[in-house]
Amino acid sequence: MCSFDMHSSYCLTEPDSGSDAMAMKSFAKDEGDHFVLNGSKAFISGAGSSDLYAVMCKTGQKEVSCLLVEKDMEGLSFGANEHKLGWNVQPTRVVNFDDVKVPKANLLGSQGQGFKIAMSGLDGGRLNIASCSLGGAAACIETTT
How many CB atoms lie within 10 A of CB 111? Predict the structure, then answer.
């Protein structure tokens, strides 16, 4: 399934809960050998062009897990590309999950580890965004001077 030339998207933010993992509504119901995932994620970088989606979702009332959803899975769809003032090099869209069957083999870590995985992803992502932002700001200053 995975190779080093795949592009992936990190899916935590939701339309009504932001990045608050415990307030998310996306839910994956355990159906034996697979989960059935329903919900949506907002402002997802690379949505529609990524091969793989690391989706944080509830798998219990207070349990968050991370499921890897592949781009060709039935029930995966995308909203329109967001119109942004900057950073247009990468598409940003809503990602929708409508009864997506995700094999148990696509569970990242173990069930219930999603909150820890989400926070780890945010730590690295914040450094990446800060670096990109500083570089963009420096380019703007150089262009105007």
Answer: 17
DSSP H/E element including 126? helix 114-144
C-beta separation of 76 from 51 below 8 A = no
**pTM (2 d.p.):** 0.83
Alpha-carbon distance of 33 to 132, in angstroms, equals 41
**How does strand 8-11 pair with strand 52-60?**
parallel
Instruction: Show the 3-state SS of 86-122.
Output: CCCCCCEEEEEEEEEEEEHHHEECCCCCHHHHHHHHH
User: Nearest to residue 21, comparing CAs of 35, 38, 41, 7?
Assistant: 41
- Mind listing the pLDDT tens digit for each residue in 64-104? 999 999 999 999 999 999 988 776 778 999 999 999 999 99
Report the relative pairing of strands 76-78 and 92-103 from DSSP bridges. Answer: antiparallel
